[in-house]
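DM from R.C. (forwarded with permission)

"hey, sorry to bug you on a friday — could you get me a structure for this? deadline for the figure draft is monday and I only need the backbone to look sensible"
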Amino acid sequence: MVCPILVHSNAMIKYILSSFLVFTFILTGNRCYSQTVTESRGDIRVMFYNVENLFDVYDDTIKNDNEFLPDGEKKWTYSHFRQKTLNIYKTIAAVGEVSPPEIVCFAEIENRYVLNELIYKTPLEKYRYKIVHFDSPDLRGIDVGLIYRKEKIQFIDSRNIEVDLPFKYSRPTRDILYFKCLVDRSDTLHLFVNHWPSRMGGKAKSASKRNYAATVLRNSVDSILEFNSCAKILIMGDFNDEPWDESIQKHLGALNTFNEPSCADLYNLSSTGSNDVSGTYRYMAEWNFLDQCIVSGSLLNETGSLHTNADKFHIADFDFLLQDDNKFGGKKPFRTYIGPLYHGGFSDHLPVFVDLDL
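My reply, with the result:
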């Protein structure tokens, strides 16, 4: 394996060590993650990861990215950025087990450049990932995006779906990313990647914004189902709400029960956790299930050519993504920053993934 040229010798050492560790975990089976890794990997694995502020080190003059600059509040350096991309690579490799996921969806990426650095300057390079990304109007410049392995996933179409909040004084929010693809040259998949408005100002006060985002998404889903009532639709993202909240259940219409699924309905697979982890994001002592996976009923038909079920959804609660919570007890995500202080971790969210079988 040929290492990319790195700016700092420390970054080179970290790169080699990280690559060696991930290679060892995968090859020997001596994995540093917990019981939620599946015993048998599906034909197609789709992952979603809110990577917590993956910014480059360059000033974007039309966005407020000043916090994440070398002379900004976070003192964000190229060395920190390189370590962050290596951490993300390590997580993707662990989720993939013997082979990285066919599709990896992201929230909180600044631009296409950071995805280029991830897929061309880490060991992901050999998997020939392609990028789908659109700039969104978020004031800080954070977007959603995805990468896909073109030998299994064939691009058909993509577009950004604007979430133009109609409320007075609302800040611009992230677009929804739509990706249409052919899976293993056999079946069409419609994928939506989301990062809904935050809970800034309080969950109840900000709920209308997420309800609106849910309505925008539902309209897009319905436009697909109107053309093909049994279209196979996969929705992933950080919804900043939980599976039982109004935005998900009422406005998006995602059901939590799976008895006799209907093609035209949506079903939320996100309802389980492990002993240490009962969500994907922890606020103080409470786990929240913000990162979710929702499918159309046609994907729950196991006689179909592309299908899944609730047992194939997982939280990636690997040991290296967690640390002890000395204040509240239990575990919490191992973050990149704690306040203004660099912590060297991965993200404040845990990744989720789902297997699709052919």
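R.C.: lifesaver. The CA atoms of residues 31 and 183 lie 29 Å apart.
me: no worries. The first strand starts at residue 44 and ends at 54.
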